[in-house]
Every structure is written in C-alpha cells, then in structure tokens.
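STRUCTURE:
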C-alpha cells in the first residue's frame, strides 16, 4: 500500500515510539540503566582516602577456625583496630540471635564508645529488636521511602553500639545495585542505611533531617554534616570509581588501616555475599564502602528530575528533524544527520557525566532517531524506486534507453500533470499500405501482414529513438512522435525533420527487400510541425499516458496527409513541414512547396520540404 511509504508513515512511527516511551516501560528503563553503566566504565579509578576493608578471607578462616566465629573473635578485631588507630568500625553482620558459643558479653563490652556500627535488615517475616533513629522532617517524606513490614535488628545486648544501620539495598529492575536508599521505614519509624549511619557516627551527630516536596524526597542531612541530595525515594547514585585498601583479618597488624573507616567484610568461599554492580559482581561490603565514600567525598552523581522529560522531548524533536531532512535533502545529508545525532548524544551523555557528574540517557534518543531516520530514508527510497520503475515502464518502449536512464536518475525532469511547452511533432504513415494488405489477404496470410507492419514499425521507431524522440503512440501503420519532452532537446525542429528524412531513406531500403518478396511498392509520408502544446500525463485515475494535445499537434497530422498531394520524382513528397518548423531549422536545407489552408485556421500556412542533395 502506497501510504506505507509516504513520508507521514515515518511520522506515525515516531508517534508510536513516543507513545510507547511516554510511560517509561521496562525496555526503555533497562536500556537507560545500561547506558548509565557504559559511561561509568570511563570513570577514572582513584584510591579511597576514607574507607578500607578488613576481610575475613581464607587465611582468616584457617587461622581462627570454623565460620561463624565466636563473637569474642569479632570483639578482638574491634579492639585491635581501635588500638591501631582505625576510625569508625562497620560490621555488616546480623547478630540477631544469641551466640551459641557464648561470646556475646565480650562483643557487648567493646561495641559501645568505640565507634562501632552494627547491622539490621528489613524483612517481611518478623519485626524484632529494630533500632530506629530520630529524624526531623520537612514535608511528609514517609510515603516516598522504601518500606518494610518489619525490621530485624541485633540482640538487645548489642543495642548499645554507637550505630545500627540497615543492610538492605534497592536493586534496579535488572538486579544491579546502582542506587542505595539512605533512609527506610517500618510504619512511622525511620531507619538509616548502614552507610549513612556510619557517616553519622563518624561526625558524632545524634539524628537526621529529611526534606520532601510534592514530587518526593529532595535531600537528607546529618546536621553536623553537609546536605546530600537524593532522588525522590531518598536514594543516592553510587559512584563506582574507588579502589579500596584491603587487609586480611589474619594479619598480625592493622596499622595500615589507621585513620580510615574500616568495614569488616567476608570474602572467603561460601560466606561472602555477592551482588551485581555496574562494574560486575562484587562483595556486598564493597557496596557499603563505595556508598560511604560517595557521601564522604561529596561526589554524588545527579540525575535531574527534568532529565527524563527533556530526553523524551529531544527524541521527538530530533525524530521530526530527521523526517524533514530525509524528505527534502539528499541521502548523504540524512545519513550524516543520523550519525551526528548518534555520536552527539553519546558524547553529550559522556561529557555531562565526566565533567558534571550528571546522568543523561542517550539510549532512547539513539533508538528513536535510528528507527525513525531509517524508516524515513527507506520510505523515500521505495517511493523513488517505484517512481523510477513507473518511469521505466511508461517510457521504455517510447524513449531511447539512455533517455529512460536520465529520467530515472532525475525524475524531476518529468513533471506529472500537464505543462505548456514548445515542441516539434512528427506524424509518419505508410503510403501504399492498401495494396500490401490486399496482397496478404489474397494469400490468406494475416500473420505475414503483421510481420511486415512490425518490421516497418521497428525500423522507423529505432530511428526516432536514436534521434532523441518520444514515441507517443502507434495508430495502425502510423507513428506519432515528438521532441523536447519529457527531456529537453535544444534543436527539436532539426531532430524531427532529420528523423523524417532518415525514415524516408530507410523506407527506400525496405522497398528493395519487399520487391524481392514480390510485394507492392510502398512510400512514406511524414508531417512535421513546431509549436506550443500541452504535454503530460493524460487520461483517467486508473489509466493514463504521457501525451500531447494542441493545434500544433493537429497541424503536423494534417501535413502528413498532405504529402499525397505533392509529387517528387517517381513518387510523392515524403516529408512536409510547416513554416513554424522552418523558422527554427539550422541543419537542414529546405525549399518551399506551397501555401495551403488547413482546417481550423484562417490564414494560409507555408509548407516546406527537405532539399534533395542533387538539387
């Protein structure tokens, strides 16, 4: 169907994609998140100045025995870290049940006053021993926070720890952790993440502040620390560009960890918790450390509230620009525009992250412009291909193949509909056709007659096409042709007369052939005229032809009929042309034949014939 290749079909595609993308579906969100991962791969890795890991690795298991350790071993780690000058000590291990080996007292003795942060988790199964924190609220942030039915905290003997934070993360739709909620809730109680709680303990502040608006949470703050701007659900984007110092818990000295926030994490086979990150799989304590460092360094990644809308609008505008360019410009310009949009949007996303720590999605713009741009170019290609095929079908039997090629290459040379134009016209007919017809009739050989006519028409048509003429139609043994349309012909009058002369000469050669076959002699009569006419596609909606109409055409037909009235040598004058053609001739010598009155005209018309070489 033709409407499928109309330029508006690409607009329909743009509207469909825009409608699909308006609700931010799964595929669009997934591609956006993956594009964020790509730009973060280029972030320069830097050593962390704030956080280090004390890792329970295979060597630690070999030294201290079966996991889980007796809790007095964890108490020993805390004491050694404190003695060697470590900062806040984070233990992301859930001590929700009493130690069956009896080490709770030793751990309880060291968790208070030593800057120790323990863990709790949001759960759907129980609400037990949770430790909440006071939060000062501006607005109503609770509906926007991640909520859990319950919270499972450490045993009450350990509530004296300086901090207790939530371990839960908030993986994206593909299971990758990119953002971490800093505050969560159970009913009306607010619980900080273990990373945010660590920062609070490090600055020795007792509470939090949170500000929200109509669109969600705006920022959270520890009063003694700087404001942290979050997304509407109190999440921060983690910047995965830190490399951490790692010390085995089996080491004899922890002095290398002096002055750093130390996270005790498990890396031994079978006990370490693995999660997905933008840079691949990682141990869960890496997420805590990276979050702490992101907050502490102030390198918080921003995703503006208006970014999604601006990306959506940009995809629509760029798609419309591509449709316009693909419709009116050369193919290479459309191609350059597509490549420019793809490269430009990708670079803009990279630039905004590397220089401003802002996340901008190039994936949706790339998808929309690729699909819409290719569709628009394809529509134009198919439309032009069909036009070329139509031109070829319409003119391949009427024009020289070289002319057909020029029309296909530049269809603008063929204006659909009608236009007024000065042209030259040729009507050519066999004089003496009746005797030949009677000859084959007497022999009861109609096929022979058709063969003779076809041979005659083939030879004459070849001459017309060779001289740049357009064959309008065949009328029995008559040929109608014209010059200067659909392709321009500077010397159309000369070419029309030249064609008539060459056809007469070819007829003389045919006579010899026909005599050998025993056929009666034939002659040719040609009429040529030059003048204005209407040329173009004419007919009905279902069937039309490229043709000409006008008085100038009719005069050429009447001049062809007049050839029977003038003798030359042993035959008739084979070619007559009007004074209007004569006035434009430059290559052919002519002589006046007569002044005649033709039907439809009051004045006399001077007619001419080509001058014979021996005259």
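SEQUENCE:
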């Amino acid at each position: 169907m033709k409407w499928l290749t109309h330029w508006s079909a690409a607009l329909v595609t743009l509207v469909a994609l825009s409608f699909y993308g308006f609700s931010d579906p799964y595929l669009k969100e997934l591609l956006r998140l993956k594009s964020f991962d790509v730009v973060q791969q280029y972030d320069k890795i830097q050593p962390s100045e704030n956080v280090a890991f004390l890792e329970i690795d295979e060597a630690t298991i070999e030294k201290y025995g079966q996991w889980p350790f007796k809790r007095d071993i964890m108490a020993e780690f805390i004491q050694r870290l404190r003695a060697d000058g470590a900062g806040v000590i984070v233990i992301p291990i859930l001590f929700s049940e009493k130690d069956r080996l009896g080490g709770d007292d030793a751990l309880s003795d060291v968790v208070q006053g030593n800057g120790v942060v323990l863990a709790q988790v949001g759960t759907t199964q129980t609400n037990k021993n949770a430790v909440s924190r006071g939060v000062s609220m501006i607005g109503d942030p609770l509906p926007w926070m991640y909520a859990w039915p319950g919270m499972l905290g450490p045993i009450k003997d350990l509530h004296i720890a300086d901090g207790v934070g939530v371990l839960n993360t908030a993986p994206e739709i593909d299971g990758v952790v990119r953002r971490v909620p800093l505050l969560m809730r159970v009913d009306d109680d607010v619980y900080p993440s273990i990373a945010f709680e660590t920062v609070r303990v490090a600055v020795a502040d007792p509470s939090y502040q949170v500000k929200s608006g109509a669109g969600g949470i705006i920022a959270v703050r520890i009063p003694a620390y700087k404001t942290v701007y979050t997304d509407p659900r109190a999440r921060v984007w983690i910047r995965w560009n830190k490399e951490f110092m790692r010390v085995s818990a089996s080491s004899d000295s922890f002095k290398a960890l002096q002055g750093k926030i130390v996270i005790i994490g498990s890396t031994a086979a079978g006990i370490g918790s693995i999660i997905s990150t933008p840079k691949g799989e990682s141990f869960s304590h890496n997420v805590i450390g990276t979050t702490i460092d992101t907050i502490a360094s102030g390198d918080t990644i921003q995703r503006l509230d208006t970014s999604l809308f601006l990306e959506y609008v940009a995809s629509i505008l760029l798609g419309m620009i591509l449709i316009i360019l693909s419709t009116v410009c050369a193919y290479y310009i459309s191609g350059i525009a597509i490549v420019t949009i793809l490269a430009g949007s990708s670079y803009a996303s990279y630039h905004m992250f590397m220089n401003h720590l802002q996340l901008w999605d190039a994936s949706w713009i790339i998808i929309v412009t690729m699909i819409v741009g290719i569709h628009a170019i394809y529509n134009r290609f198919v439309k032009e291909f069909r036009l070329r095929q139509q031109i070829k079908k319409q003119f391949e039997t009427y024009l020289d193949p070289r002319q057909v090629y020029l029309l296909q290459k530049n269809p603008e040379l063929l204006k659909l509909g009608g236009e007024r134009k000065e042209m030259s016209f040729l009507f050519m007919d066999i004089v003496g056709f009746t005797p030949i017809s009677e000859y084959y009739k007497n022999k009861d050989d109609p096929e022979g007659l058709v063969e003779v006519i076809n041979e005659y028409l083939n030879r004459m048509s070849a001459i017309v096409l060779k001289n740049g003429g357009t064959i309008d139609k065949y009328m029995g043994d008559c040929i109608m042709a014209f010059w200067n349309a659909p392709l321009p012909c500077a010397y159309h009058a000369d070419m029309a007369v030249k064609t008539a002369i060459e056809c007469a000469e070819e007829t003389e050669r045919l006579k010899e052939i026909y005599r050998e076959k025993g056929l009666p002699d034939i002659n040719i009569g040609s009429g040529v005229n030059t003048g204005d006419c209407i040329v173009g596609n004419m007919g009905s909606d279902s069937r039309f032809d490229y043709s000409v109409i006008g008085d100038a055409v009719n005069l050429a037909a009447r001049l062809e009929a007049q050839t029977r009235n003038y003798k030359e040598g042993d035959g008739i004058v084979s070619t007559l042309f009007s004074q209007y053609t004569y006035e434009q001739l430059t290559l052919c010598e002519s002589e006046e034949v007569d002044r005649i009155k033709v039907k439809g005209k009051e004045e006399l018309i001077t007619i001419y014939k080509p001058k014979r070489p021996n005259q």
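REMARK: The two ends are 63 Å apart (CA to CA).
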